[in-house]
Structures are given as structure tokens and as C-alpha cells.
């Protein structure tokens, strides 16, 4: 099935949960926030939440920042 | 100075210099500048992870959250809705309820939208956030933010990244006199004397990013800022002499020929 991850369409296996997606993306569960269809998940729900066709998933993390705007330094894309 | 700690909402901070983590050349420079500055509060932004380049590194690999208080901001948010959403995401990504709340009103000045700021702060405080609001140098707005439950206020010295220093020292002094919570001067610092001056006025801390990261030698400027904030704080506590129009001799007349 297909889901949207950070704005990009992505093929994932059926029945995959959030923890599984993060593992596939090699992301540290402790360092990210996950929002699905505009609803922010608690970290404790990553196992229980299974993805569905068409889900819009946003995965965010902390990056370097002071204040104000967004500046275009290559390395400042979050990991 | 070691016993001169800053306390906000039950949290104790050792350093009165707070620093941002943006605009550095790389994470190694970020880490070195922050270590040199002596800061124990560092601000970060919240953004989408890069899912295409899995080799890119994470800022928190360089700044241990056990060693630093990670203060997420809502930089880049122009609406109440966005600021609230990013605050919630920051809480979900991190470990605390702290947020440096920014609702930006205008792209050119990056001045805060203070009406939006108060509205967003109310929502977040109700949700249990510890809201540290980035606000204008407006004493009335600062007091309103305190009244709704902000445990500190963060008035700007000048526009973010402008390096203009304290543009409105008299308003800042009024804020320092009128609000009964810590005041952290945030944004607009250009060089060490700006930071020292803010502290001499009685600010509880100074937060900066560009002044260090944008200096020709960021690590050296980080050190300068550390001393400036310490010197300014000491001078404030020591109490400056009054300004007088005419001279007062500092050598005795007695004993002269």
C-alpha cells in the first residue's frame, strides 16, 4: 500500500506499524515526533498504531535553530 | 557566580547566556561554540526529518539532552495554529514541556505578532506547556504574558539576526521593573557589549544565535559572550555609580603642596 511520508509517496507493507516504519527509515524512535493525518502520536502508541492506505505521515525532529525564520543551510535539514 | 542561579518554573539554570544552534558551519562547530559559551540552555527548531539521506547526522548526537536543556522554538510559525502545532510536535519529539513560543508577524522584521502570541500562549499553558514567549519590547504585552501564566518573558533587543543591540533600552528597563518573572533578552544582540549592557540593566539572561554563529570566529565570540554576560551580571549586582554631569575627584586634596 501507499502512504505519504513527509510529503512523498512511499510504498510500505500491509499492517506495518509506526515503529516498523521508523525502523525501516533507520530513525531513532526517541528523537522524532510523528503526526498522522494531523494527529500527533504519543511515543507509547507507535506500536499500536498501524498504517492505512493513504495515511499522511509527518516525521519531525530537532534541528539547529535560533529564532525567526527558516534559513537555507544545507546541513540544517533535520535528521 | 556559581551560586547565582536562574530559576524558571522550578528549573534551575547555571548559565545566564542561552544560545541558539542555527547557522553554524557544521555540528562540530555548533558543539564547540556552545561548549565554549558555557550555556546550558540551547534552542532548537522542529522540522521534517530527511528521509532520503539516511547518512545525515542528528543535532542531538552533538548536544546531549542530558547535559543541556533543549528548548524547542516555534520559529517560522506565522499563525497561532502553526505555533500551537509545532509546540505539540516539539513536546512529542522531546522530553519536556518547555517551549520558546514565537508567532512571527512579518517576514522582513520577524517581529512577533503579539496578539497571536498571547492567544497561542493561553492555549499552550492550558495544555501544561511551560511557555517562554519571544515578545516585543512592549511592557504592556510583557505584563499580559505574565498574567496569563508565562513563567518568564523574552523581549527582543532588536530584530532577530540584526545585530543592532538594544534599540529601546528604556522600554526594556520598564519591563525589568514591572514584571515579576525572569526577563531573558532575546534576539538582536550584535556583540559582547550589547549582551553586557542587557545584563547590567538587570536582565536575568540573554539569548542569542547569530551574534555568535555569524561572527568571523564563532568560537572566540562564544567566549566573549560568556564573559560579557558574566561581567554584566556582576556589574548589575555590584551596582553602578550614578551618572553626574561634572567631575568628582578621586584623589584627595589633603596633603597637596
Protein chains sharing the most extensive interface: A-B, 37 and 51 residues
Radius of gyration of chain A: 14 Å
Q: Secondary-structure element sequence of chain B? A: EEEHEEHEHEHEHEHEHH
Strand coverage percent of chain A: 25-35%
For the termini of chain A, the CA-CA separation is 25 Å
Mean of residue pLDDT values of chain A: 84
Major β-sheet profile of chain A: 5 strands, mixed
Q: How would you describe the shape of chain B?
A: globular
Number of helices of chain B: 8
SSE order of chain A, one letter for each helix or strand: EEHEEE
Counting helices, strands and paired strands, the structural category of chain B is alpha/beta
Spatial separation of the terminal alpha carbons of chain B: 45 Å
Q: Structural class, from helix and strand content of chain A?
A: mainly beta
The tally of strands of chain A reads: 5
User: Can you give the mean pLDDT of chain B?
Assistant: 93
Low-confidence stretches of chain B: none
Q: Which percent band covers the strand fraction of chain B?
A: 15-25%
Considering DSSP H and I runs of 4 or more, what fraction of the residues of chain B is helical? Answer: 25-40%
Can you describe this structure?
The complex is a heterodimer of chains A (79) and B (257). Chain A is mainly beta and 79 residues long. In chain A, 9% of the residues lie in helices and 29% in strands. Chain A is built from one helix and five strands. Chain A has one helix at residues 18-24; strands spanning 2-5, 8-11, 33-36, 39-40, 56-64. Chain A is globular. Residues 71-79 of chain A have low confidence and may be disordered. Chain B has 257 residues and is an alpha/beta fold. Chain B has helices at 27-37, 80-93, 114-126, 139-147, 169-178, 192-201, 210-213, 218-238; strands spanning 6-8, 11-13, 17-20, 41-48, 69-72, 98-101, 130-135, 154-155, 184-186, 205-208. A five-stranded parallel β-sheet of chain B has the order 5-4-3-10-9. In chain B, helix 2 packs across helix 3 (114-126) and helix 6 packs parallel to helix 8. Chain B is globular. Chain B starts with 5 loop residues before the first strand and ends in a 19-residue tail after the last helix. The mean pLDDT of chain B is 93. At the A-B interface, strand 3 and strand 5 of A face strand 4 and helix 2 of B. Strand 5 (56-64) of chain A pairs antiparallel with strand 4 (41-48) of chain B, so a sheet runs across the interface.
Amino acid at each position: 500500500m501507499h502512504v505519504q511520508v513527509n510529503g512523498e509517496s512511499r510504498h510500505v507493507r500491509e499492517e506495518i506499524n509506526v515503529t516498523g516504519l521508523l525502523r525501516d527509515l533507520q530513525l531513532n524512535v526517541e528523537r522524532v515526533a510523528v503526526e498522522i493525518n494531523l494527529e500527533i502520536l504519543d511515543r507509547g502508541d507507535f506500536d499500536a498504531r498501524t498504517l492505512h492506505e493513504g495515511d499522511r505521515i509527518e516525521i519531525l525532529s530537532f534541528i539547529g535553530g535560533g529564532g525567526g525564520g527558516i534559513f537555507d543551510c544545507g546541513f540544517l535539514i533535520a535528521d | 557566580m556559581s551560586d547565582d542561579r536562574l530559576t524558571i518554573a522550578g528549573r534551575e539554570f547555571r548559565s545566564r547566556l542561552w544560545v541558539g544552534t542555527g547557522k553554524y558551519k557544521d555540528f562540530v562547530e555548533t558543539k564547540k561554540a556552545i561548549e565554549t559559551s558555557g550555556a546550558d540552555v540551547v534552542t532548537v527548531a522542529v522540522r521534517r526529518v530527511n528521509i532520503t539521506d539516511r547518512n545525515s547526522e542528528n543535532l542531538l548526537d552533538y548536544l546531549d539532552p542530558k547535559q543541556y536543556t533543549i528548548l524547542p522554538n516555534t520559529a517560522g510559525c506565522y499563525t497561532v495554529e502553526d505555533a500551537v502545532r509545532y509546540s505539540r510536535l516539539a513536546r512529542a519529539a522531546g522530553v519536556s514541556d518547555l517551549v520558546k513560543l514565537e508567532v512571527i508577524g512579518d517576514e522582513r522584521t520577524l517581529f512577533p505578532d503579539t496578539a497571536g502570541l498571547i492567544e497561542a500562549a493561553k492555549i499552550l499553558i492550558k495544555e501544561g506547556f511551560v511557555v517562554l514567549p519571544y515578545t516585543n519590547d512592549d511592557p504592556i504585552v510583557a505584563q499580559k504574558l505574565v498574567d496569563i501564566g508565562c513563567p518568564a518573558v523574552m523581549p527582543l533587543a532588536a530584530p532577530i539576526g540584526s545585530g543592532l543591540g538594544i534599540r529601546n533600552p528604556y522600554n526594556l528597563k520598564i519591563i525589568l521593573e514591572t514584571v515579576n518573572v525572569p526577563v531573558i533578552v532575546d534576539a538582536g544582540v550584535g556583540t559582547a557589549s550589547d549582551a553586557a549592557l542587557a545584563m547590567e540593566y538587570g536582565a536575568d539572561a540573554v539569548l542569542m544565535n547569530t551574534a555568535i554563529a555569524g561572527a568571523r570566529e564563532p568560537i572566540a565570540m562564544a567566549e566573549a559572550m560568556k564573559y560579557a554576560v558574566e561581567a554584566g551580571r556582576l556589574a548589575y549586582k555590584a551596582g553602578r555609580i550614578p551618572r553626574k554631569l561634572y567631575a568628582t575627584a578621586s584623589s584627595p586634596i589633603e596633603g597637596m603642596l
